[in-house]
Amino acid sequence: MGSIRFDKVDKVFGPVSGGVKALDDINLEIADKEFVAIVGPSGCGKTTCLRMVAGFEPPSAGIVSVNGKAVTEPGPDRAVVFQQFALFPWKTVRENIELGLRNKNLPKAERDGLVAGALKLMNLESHADAFPHQLSGGMQQRVAIARAYVLDPEVLLMDEPFGALDAQTRVVMQEELVRLARVNPRTVLFITHAVEEAVYLADRVAIMTRRPGRIKEVLDIRSVRQAESWDRHERIEDVMDLESFVHLRTQIWKSLREEKGAHGV
Amino acid sequence: MIGRRGWVGLGSVAAVLLLWFGLTTATGFVSPGRFPSPADFWLSLNQISTRGYAGGGLAAHALQSVKLVAMGFVVAIATGVPLGLWMGWDRRAEAAINPIFLIIRPIPPLAWIPLAILWLGLGDGAKIMVIWFAAFVPSVINSFAGVRNIDRPIIEAAQMLGTPRWRMVTEVIAPAAAPMIFTGLRLSLQASWTTLVAAELVGALAGIGFVLNMAQQDIYPGMILVGMVTVGVLGWATTYALGRVERRALAWNVAGRD
Amino acid sequence: MQTIPLRLSEKWAWGALGLVGFIGLWASLSAFGIVPRQFLPSPLDVLTRFIHLLTNPFAGATLPQHLASSFQRYAYGVLLAAFIGVPLGLLMGWFRWLDDVVTPLFDGLRFIAPIAWVPFAALWFGVGIGGPILIIFAGAFPPCLINAYRGARFVEPRLIEAARMLGTGHLRMILEILLPAATPSIVSGLRVSAGLGWQSLVGAELIVAAAGVGFMMVQAQANVATPTVMAGMVAIGLVGMAIDVMLRQGEAWLRRRRGLQA
């Protein structure tokens, strides 16, 4: 029931005539519990797609719907993990995670239980009463993910969530996300410009053109992943070494390179 | 404990004090009618503390001034901060209120004094009114800026979490804008003191400004200096108190630590 | 929060509504006698009075003459503050020992409201021009000093290191490295200074002047000539606004010239 659908979606920024057309005729269907990544050159509008599902931007044309209902405003059913974490600096880790639950008017006992579960899931138990500024980038992003996960959302929207992290932390987070996704699957829309990340995490990868963004092609990763049993390897570097992985990655790179245009930018 | 900087600082203060003594008492270079000697200062301080001056003791006058500053300051921030927050949040409110602001703002607070005296006489009311005008503007402006400067993702995250309106204001907007709000409060406090002293200089029957006025009319430099020093001390004390409140309220704000 | 700005037409519409509402409230309070006309003249009264004062003297001079007189004192005070404050600030920013010597003294005097200098000003200068200048100086000096100091002190350390590596002496360092680098901060400080100076001027003139707009307003108050008092406030506000606008333009021009965004 957490399906997402883009139906002939356009997005124009600025005045109605003469504005910047960010997205052009986006059509994409994401099934319930499917993990879809969108990759594309900078400025192609992939983040805008996510923001429309989140309810932060309305489409200029077409319909963005979740579960068949058009999206009108943000809400906890479509939880967002932001690139810059967006944690509330004046609240502790625990309070950050708890806010969404308090907004749902859940009783205290239930909230405490859910928060404890989320802290355990993301390995944050020993930092529960710390403030965000006392944590590293990786830990802060874990808090952001915990804050989203604790809502048990049908749809999880992740906007380049590991972009602000250093390379090593990034790898750790990717492995963790895969673990979570396999154990507790839900619909995920994942935006990234890192192709390897997309191939490693997603069931399908949508490739966007440069502005105005269109969906150029959608590659099916899942069938390859299952056929080649990627999941039997625990470590990212082992998966990324596989021929089937490299093949898919190269395919996407080639497609993106066509989008770079004459200047290679 | 006292680092090198501290010693140099103490040294320069000591040097100034010595200079003061030297220019006045020792050489008579600066006549007592112009600027009081340390002895004059001490005598005046003694007088006002024990026998009183201009109708009361030092404590009484100081209390009167602090009382008015406190009242005016509180009224100003109680009206200014919410207004600023509202204008920051609601663009229509901003559009409607801004022009009025642009007209009122350039009028220096002290320029309201003659009008305040016409309206409310020489009593406390006029002072509080003028303090309100002075302290109101910085609070509004800084609260407004505080809201506008909130990182978009923070607001969006709160919206995404389904935060209802009242909780949004108290648990997200106010804390996020708090650093700038406090900047506004500090400016408001400064404005309150300036305005109060001026108002008391122009028309009052008690308070430190009144003491200054009387001392000037009596040509009593020692007492003038006592008045000025008292203004400085009270200003420092109130600012320090506000700083303590700020530090507690913003304990989480490592980024903004100066 | 409304993150989407209003269209210009909407902005103007709301603005007009607010303004009309404000003036309307004022006018009706006065017209219906809710507040006695004597204390709250109607907007029209103030406007007519303002125009009248442009050519007819009150308390010894016409409004423009009072303004000119005020502005003269103001200019002296602010320029004096700038000529002492900016160089001193730069020097303090560079020579740490100077900072250590001056800052405690400055901190001690900082909390004395400029207006508290009025009694000494009256004692030393009577109603002469020195009085207001002293008070304006007291108000305008701190921002000049502080901004120049901060501009110099917080210059990108790499720039200082590069200059030292190139063997730059003290004077050249201050004039060719610190001063240009600190210019945005200094200009911003001058703008604040100008504003505070104008405010201090008003306060000073309320007490220790024999001419000028503040003096005019005090005389009007003593004579319960409320429209004149308010006309004076309008004049002060207009000039203050003009000064600020001009300085902002200057600041923007300077930033564009330096290649920073306006």
What does this structure look like?
The complex is a heterotrimer of chains A (265), B (258) and C (262). Chain A has helices spanning 46-54, 93-103, 108-121, 137-149, 167-183, 195-201, 222-227, 236-240, 243-260; strands at 4-13, 20-30, 35-39, 61-66, 69-70, 78-81, 155-159, 187-191, 204-208, 215-220. Chain A has 265 residues and is an alpha/beta fold. In chain A, the strands form 2 sheets. Chain A has a 6-stranded mixed sheet, sandwiched between helices. Chain A is globular and about 50 Å long. The model of chain A has no long low-confidence stretch (mean pLDDT 90). Helix content of chain B is 78%, strand content 0%. In chain B, helix 3 runs parallel beside helix 6 (124-148). The model of chain B has no long low-confidence stretch (mean pLDDT 88). Chain C is mainly alpha-helical. The longest helix of chain C is centred in the last third of the chain and has 38 residues, at 170-207. Chain C starts with 7 loop residues before the first helix and ends with a helix. Chains in contact: A-B, B-C. Chains B and C meet through helix 1, helix 4, helix 5, helix 8 and helix 9 of B and helix 1, helix 4, helix 5, helix 8 and helix 9 of C.
